[in-house]
Amino acid sequence: MQRSDYLLSQLDVLEAESIHIIREVAAEFERPVLLFSGGKDSLVMLRLAQKAFWPAPIPFPVMHVDTGHNFPEVIEFRDRRATELNLRLVVASVQESIDAGRVAEETGRRASRNRLQTTTLLDAIEEHRFDAAFGGARRDEEKARAKERVVSFRDEFGQWDPKNQRPELWNLYNTRIRQGEHVRVFPLSNWTELDIWDYVRREELELPSIYFAHTRRVFERDGMLLDAETGFANRGDDEPEFEATVRYRTVGDASCTGAVKSAAQTLEQVIEEIAATRITERGQTRADDRSSEAAMEDRKKEGYF
């Protein structure tokens, strides 16, 4: 007899939805790829992809768009996980794009390679003929991401037009594209930052050490604490560096990713901290998204993640 009292937890529902999306895209597209930075969201996606095809291996490669200005702890972790899981890791290098004259290095105090990732990403998608790219974006992060569909259409120039997105009814996804077009797929669309951390705890996922409190040399700019150890952020003479106990809520280009003061050294402490905060992680930690409310939307229209 069928049980009528079977209930799923919030994480079970989110996990089932994400696995359904991953399987659907793997079935419908010829050459999908999972964008993998070594950060918490991409690590959750990696676990979901493992579960989606277990006991078979993940049937598509993972790709990191490497700015060359990453935190060393994250790159070491990325490479180690790729080796442990026997993943095919594709590294698309922004430095190679600069060397080839495809993009020009920014200059000045606020110079960053974050925007330069767009060209590198689109070139890699064209080179490897990827037709679907799984990304870890969540709708709770900021306004532009909230406009995304789960299967988000990109035209032949890699551009995103929020007014030209296809309707998604229930869990029915439009996966039809023409030659030269591709889609970005966001299995974590309906997750929140707190959901991610709860899932990390439940699945006992290892994360890069910079997600937890540690002592780091930083400097303050516009109310944010930027890294002073790697030398990627162009610190001015009027921006003295100092030591602080910090952690990172997100990882990315070290030149524009801010740390937050924190004493949270365990998963439980981080979860308590996230549950109490009222500021989104991008609003608190990404300098490039603070330039205007439309900053992320502008970059997405250009072909950004």
From TrEMBL:
Residues 281-305 are annotated as: Disordered. One of its GO terms (biological process) is sulfate assimilation. Keywords: ATP-binding, Nucleotide-binding, Nucleotidyltransferase, Transferase. It comes from the Bacteria. GO terms for molecular function: ATP binding; sulfate adenylyltransferase (ATP) activity. Its EC number is 2.7.7.4. Residues 32-258 form the Phosphoadenosine phosphosulphate reductase domain. SUPFAM superfamilies: Adenine nucleotide alpha hydrolases-like. InterPro entries: PAPS_reduct_dom, Rossmann-like_a/b/a_fold, SO4_adenylTrfase_ssu, Sulfate_adenylyltrnsfr_sub2. NCBIfam families: CysD (TIGR02039), PRK05253.1 (NF003587), PRK12563.1 (NF009214). Heterodimer composed of CysD, the smaller subunit, and CysNC. Belongs to the PAPS reductase family. CysD subfamily. This is Sulfate adenylyltransferase subunit 2. It comes from Actinomadura logoneensis. The gene is cysD.
